[in-house]
Amino acid sequence: MTEENQESQHTNLEEKLQKVIYLLHKYKLVDGLVRLQEDQRHHLANSIVQKQNFAGLQNMLDKLHSADIARILEALPLEDRLILWRMVTSERDGEVLLEVSDAVRQTLIEDMESHELVAAAEQLDANEIADLAPDLPSDVIEGVFRALPMEERDQLRAAMSYPEDSVGALMDFDVITVREDVRIEVVLRYLRRLGELPDHTDQLFVIDREEHFKGVLRLNQLLVNDPEKIISDVMSRETIKFHPDNKAEEATQAFERYDLISAPVITPDQKLLARLTVNDVIDFMRERADLEARNQAGLSEEEDLFAPVWKSVHNRWAWLAINLITAFIASRVIGLFEDSIEKLVALAALMPIVASVGGNSGNQTITMIVRAIALGQINLESSMYKLIAKEIGVSIINGIIWGSVVGLFTYALYQNYQLGLLIALAMLLNLLLAALVGVLIPLIRKKLGRDPALGSSVMITAVTDSGGFFIFLGLATWFLL
Amino acid sequence: MTEENQESQHTNLEEKLQKVIYLLHKYKLVDGLVRLQEDQRHHLANSIVQKQNFAGLQNMLDKLHSADIARILEALPLEDRLILWRMVTSERDGEVLLEVSDAVRQTLIEDMESHELVAAAEQLDANEIADLAPDLPSDVIEGVFRALPMEERDQLRAAMSYPEDSVGALMDFDVITVREDVRIEVVLRYLRRLGELPDHTDQLFVIDREEHFKGVLRLNQLLVNDPEKIISDVMSRETIKFHPDNKAEEATQAFERYDLISAPVITPDQKLLARLTVNDVIDFMRERADLEARNQAGLSEEEDLFAPVWKSVHNRWAWLAINLITAFIASRVIGLFEDSIEKLVALAALMPIVASVGGNSGNQTITMIVRAIALGQINLESSMYKLIAKEIGVSIINGIIWGSVVGLFTYALYQNYQLGLLIALAMLLNLLLAALVGVLIPLIRKKLGRDPALGSSVMITAVTDSGGFFIFLGLATWFLL
User: Fold this and answer.
1) In A, which residues are within 8 Å of B366 by CB distance?
2) A359 and A326 within one domain
3) Do B226 and B118 fall into the same domain?
4) Domain check: are B32 and B92 in the same one?
């Protein structure tokens, strides 16, 4: 590299560093999040900008939590992101890769050599490697596999064998086990020898010689009981436990309801396999919420904010295509009544009102029902009929109220009372349709074993649009023309 | 009560009990959630049904976690719900009231006498009473207040004084404090005397004589260190702490990122006030996610699945009214072009396609931006321009692709190539509008200090509907007719 090149690159870098430092400041504003002292940060920031002190930035990055580095990487456009990424000390590459979103992770991985990726993965636990695995090239995974000790290889294989939304995909293997026939004193000495406990250790797991799960020993019990007591006298035998193929969503609800911090994961033959921690559960909840928000809006995958345009187009393609099909159908429904519209053009201006209010009302119903299914509130046949009756009742009242409003609006505009009556009736019918379909779509999808929420908004809107146009234009054609 | 009355009530009750028992079974199917042994449950269920063994049901209820009772209450229609509610032992009324949703809580509270409510609230901690307070009649709150010891009164006052979305509204007062100049041995003896530690105690809080917060002492440190060591040598001084008026959402993100179980809440003058636990944070996350789903669908409040019809109508009223106004506006935009539609009625059939695809695409953009704002990814001016440029790029490509598809469809249907070109152009323009407004709405709302997400879907759809109709019909009027 020539000197000139180096010079210009430095000026460029300085600009980028200022951005990074700005972001560091920005993110440290909340007092609660301060890990560095305020003056330390100022000093570091100044020394970096003034002296182009790269070692200073490195020092600063080293003091940040991996999650914070991940956050800053996500907020930077691609080019700047890679400059900062290369400054992150390689021992922390693995941790940072775990913390960033899938979309951003891909951009970072593309920037790394295979041997760097293998080195990064080796610093992680088996369950963490399993989380990264879908994004890693196959030669890297093989490399990691060869480098792992036998026990961890088995764990990695186990963790990778469960579907993404199962407990098996979330569990970790950081369990500390004890026997039930020893004294607390012995356990205390054992822990002191270990020197450090895994994060989120609120309890130890009690197993027998064949690794069968016997119960849990909460750290609290270790602390408040006489050290001479035997473990079997202070452990809890009735505890909440999971199988690796339980649904992650069910585990999440159990953690929420019973305020758990960790729970054992056991095999069908009652052997202790791993544990699930509240931290895994929170991550799952967040990912799930993101997924739902994306599905609602019609985004197929997580999207890097600074993804190239063509990637974003690809991500949004599928749902736009579905939307286009439903719009075509609605258009053809209107096409059926072109003669009527030609005779009374006011129909064209009024028809979107019927469709739109129906769509909104249907979305309200479907959201209620999807949520009730998720919380397990709909189990009895009798509840189901009660619900349908209720939603129909709501839609009749809404139909009468809003139908009258729209009817009066129509009369005021077009001085045609027949048209006013007709649109009021069409509103009522479309709201009834919305209520019925809004209850039935999620219930039927649930019966078929599908996710009741996925694409529900698109489906209900398709029904209320085409249905609304058909009802309104059909009624007009029959009674008015 | 006459004997006959009692008889018929019993038969009715038996039916209802069977329902309850069915639900109990249903909810215990996941092995992980079993607290009762399988055979115990069967035995209980049978004895209740056969002998109308109310004591048996009571026994069963007593063994269930309060969160499970809450869940069953939520799944039962109002009448059945109250029968079960009256069977719950009064010592657990408070806990169950805490666990149910706001809407269901109101139905339970309406069924209770003032003195029962006071008794229920008295069993709770100050921070828990503060959570219930908005739903309690004022005479009950006064009664509770009088019954509390002085210290808890102060705590209750403190907890009630912070807004719902602040750390102060989530914190609890179950802190165990120690001094930094004592030996581990002394702390261990102290804990043994306490006999039990509050839930989610992963660390003790170190304070000085004036209650100033000095740092935390993790239970792990107590266990793995030599009992002769002094606390100041093993405690952590740099830790994440919160102020009671920090935003709850920020605290949530910190818990997620740094994998916290508990964290200290301190006053501006550095005194230890309370703590925040992962359990409070999870509850907040769930409530927040529910709120967002409701806002998306246009529901104002949490709605009891079995709420009376008129209550549901009231809950859904506001957003339907807003929707109606935007639909009226769109209708008037179409009204402007009635002459054109009369001349070329195909316009009426085609115009919803332009509006609908624009709405979907705009929702995709706005969802991306709202999420990026929530994660703090948009802070730099330069990022903002990059984002706008990217979204415009995406909409141009989408406009060309989908515009061509719709143009060809139109040509195939109406054999009018001008109309095909025109709708393709209108699609492109409406997608551009959707991208621009989809980026700007949330950014402007954020600048104004508002919630970028609230009602964003309604707003973008209003713009793309009216805008889509205007662009398409306007272009047709100018160029085609």
Assistant:
1) 297
2) yes
3) no
4) yes
Q: A359 lies in which domain range? A: 309-479
Q: Please answer whether residues A151 and A173 qualify as being in contact, where contact means their C-beta atoms are separated by less than 8 angstroms.
A: no
**Residue where a domain stops, chosen among B162, B195, B229:** B162
Q: How far is A205 from chain B (nearest CA, A)?
A: 16
Q: Are A335 and A453 members of one domain?
A: yes
CATH of the domain at B213: 3.10.580.10
**A9 and A155 belong to one structural domain:** yes
Residue B6 CA to residue B154 CA, distance in Å, equals 48
Choose among A365, A377, A383: nearest CA to A432. Answer: A365
Is residue B270 situated within a structural domain? Answer: yes
The CATH number of the domain holding residue B447 is: 1.10.357.20
| Radius of gyration of chain A from its Cα atoms, rounded to whole angstroms | 30
Between strands B213-218 and B203-207, the pairing is antiparallel
ipTM: 0.82
Residues B260, B347 within the same domain: no
Which residues, in sequence order, are CB contacts of A196 under 8 Å at separation 6+? B220, B224
Whether residue B385 lies inside any domain: the answer is yes
Nearest CA in chain B to A325: B353
**A382: closest chain B residue by CA:** B77
Distance (Å) of CA B428 to CA B357, B378, B399, B401: 10, 27, 4, 9
> How would you write the pLDDT of chain B (481 residues) with one tens digit per residue?
444 444 444 455 556 556 666 555 555 433 333 344 444 444 544 554 455 556 666 777 777 788 888 888 887 778 778 878 888 888 899 999 999 988 899 999 999 999 999 999 988 998 899 989 888 998 998 998 888 888 889 899 888 899 888 999 999 999 999 999 999 999 999 998 988 889 899 999 999 999 999 999 999 888 889 889 999 999 998 888 899 998 898 889 889 888 899 999 999 999 999 999 999 999 998 888 888 888 877 887 778 888 888 888 988 888 899 999 999 999 999 999 999 999 999 999 999 999 999 999 999 999 888 888 887 777 666 677 888 889 999 999 999 999 999 999 999 999 999 999 999 999 999 999 999 999 999 988 888 888 888 888 889 999 999 999 999 999 999 998 7
Residues forming a β-bridge with A264: A275
Closest chain A residue to B242, measured at CA: A32
Is A97 within 8 Å of A132 (Cβ atoms)?
yes
Q: Which of B241, B360, B397 sits opposite A298 (nearest CB)?
A: B360
Which stretches within A28-166 are classed as H helix?
A: 38-51, 54-63, 66-75, 78-87, 93-99, 102-110, 114-122, 126-132, 138-147, 150-160
CA pair distance B129, A394, nearest whole angstrom: 34
DSSP B240-252: --B-TTSBHHHHH
**Other Cβ atoms within 10 Å of A63 Cβ, number:** 12
Asked if the structure places residue A402 within a domain, the reply is yes
User: Both A66 and A185 in a single domain?
Assistant: no
- Asked if A253 and B226 touch (Cβ cutoff 8 Å), the reply is no
The last residue of a domain, from among A137, A165, A193: A165
- Chain A residues within an 8 Å CB radius of B184: none
Q: How far is B138 from chain A (nearest CA, A)?
A: 29
Contacts of A26 in chain B (CB under 8 A): 376, 379
User: What are the b/e assignments for B85-101, b being 16+ CB within 10 Å?
Assistant: bebbeeebbbbbbbbbb
Is residue B293 in a domain? no
Give me the number of domains chain B comprises.
3
Contact B323, A357 (CB under 8 A): yes
Same domain for B273 and B339: no
Contact B376 A27 (CB under 8 A): yes
Which residues of B are less than 8 Å from A376 in CB distance?
26-27, 71, 75
